[in-house]
Amino acid sequence: MEPSAGLERLAAPLSMTEAKTPPQTAADTRAEWRLGWDGLFADAAQEETFVREEWTVIGPRVRQIGLYGSLAFLSATFTDLTVLGATWVYWSLLTARFGILAWGLWLARVGKARTVPNVRRVATALLGFELSIMALFLLVVLAYGGSADYHSITALALIFAGYAYVPVLRREAMWVGGLFTLLFAVVIWTSLHYDAKFISIAVVLFGFANIAGWQIAVSLSRSMRLAWVDRQRLRVEAEAAQQAKHMAEQSEENLQRLFDAAPMPLVLVRMADARVLRFNAAAKALIDPDGALQGDIYSTDFYENPAQRDQLIARLQAEDAVGQVEVRLKTVRGTAVDVLFSMRKVRFAGEDCVITGMVEISAQKSLERQLRALAFTDPLTGLQNRRGFFTLVERAMAQSALDSVGPCVVLIDIDHFKRINDRYGHPVGDEVLVQFGQVVLALLRDGDVFARLGGEEFCILLPHTRAAQALEVAERVREFVAAHPFQTMAGVVRLSLSLGVAGCDAPVQSIDAVLSMADQAMYRAKQGGRNRTELHCA
């Protein structure tokens, strides 16, 4: 067997914008892993693959964000109570904070799991959690009122946390900081106190927070994904190197184990003297199931036709390999087995050898023989059918070219056979046909061919027979059938025959001419009153 090909090495080192697919980590092992402008994989399916396989790293961060973020946000309810008092605004904010707490606890539970159940759903939930916190913060700012300086510190902290700590699992998350800044600016403009000095400082700080935060988020996302791809590539390369090392270190003992464990019969033979060096358990079960072989074993002892082995070796010398050749072997018991041979030249222990794989096809060949027999045999009577008859006629014609006498043909028609079917039914008619075939067959010589051409019409081929002898055979058949009681389920049935004999005492050039003469003779027999034999000889 040919050794399987090793894993392909990955392409050149990854750039900052694209990488090759790590084998065994995606459905298409040859596709490219491309990073987008935001540091995420451009293909959504590839991004899901990354999140699933890196969940042991991403999951804990999601858990911490959900747990600590929601708890920290809930703790601010004490400030709400101090600032707002027990008003309906306070209770509304408290309800919203508990809602965010529930959301965060769900994220914490998902992040704690060993595998992510649904990447898209978790990514959407994380984005929604982030947006909800920022939206509630803006509502708190509106409820508190006051100076913009105080609230800006918290807003900047939220922006940096969103960019630097929350893992970007959806592209939309990259716009959360900018959207939040814009909405916060609207709140400041409409509801908070500020001065010109604050405006200049806020533009610088919030602009820096978004630009730097964007770069940090993209860099972190890109670094995580490129590092993951590199780890996958290194893992595959390490596995390939380990596999190559393992294959290089395989010893003859390992090869022998593989040889012995193969389910296909395998035999290793030295070409010089046909000595069998090794054969596995499957070959032993095929050739020597009783374990009778002792001492040196030679492959030539197992060919039914030793000359076939010489032909195969000659082909092997010319082609180095021979495949799908049917060979008939004999076992130690002397039983013939049909096998399909595949042979290849190999070097073993410094010598030219042949390794042969065998597939037993005895059952298949037996079935082929049965099918061939069915193709040439009448299924009811077991006699030759029309195809089988003409095949044997061709052989007889070929022999007649060497003989001084051509074959004779006797056409037979059972008289009034339709009446039997009409009176007794077709099952009885079939019984009569079967018995008739057996009776006539018993009257013929070895080498004579008896065939059913169809219906109640039969034919006898008499090779190497003169016309006078053929007429005697036909009369003997007619008289015996006329006197024979055919026992059926409906009782005794009597038959008579009309026979036409055709033959020549010289070699025959065309069997069609002989059959035509026999047909004419049989027609005269019917016209002459049936139950008679007519001879037509050119």
From TrEMBL:
From the UniProt record, list the coiled-coil ranges. Answer: 231-261
InterPro entries, per database record: Diguanylate_Cyclase (IPR050469), GGDEF_dom (IPR000160), Nucleotide_cyclase (IPR029787), PAS-like_dom_sf (IPR035965), Rev_trsase/Diguanyl_cyclase (IPR043128)
Q: Which Pfam families match?
A: GGDEF
Show the PROSITE patterns listed in the entry. Answer: GGDEF
Catalysed reaction equations from the record: 2 GTP = 3',3'-c-di-GMP + 2 diphosphate
Query: What keywords does the record list, in alphabetical order?
Result: Coiled coil, Membrane, Transmembrane, Transmembrane helix
- Please list the GO terms describing molecular function: diguanylate cyclase activity
Give the GGDEF domain ranges: 405-538
Indicate what this protein is called per its UniProt record: diguanylate cyclase
Recite the lineage of the species. Answer: Bacteria, Pseudomonadati, Pseudomonadota, Betaproteobacteria, Burkholderiales
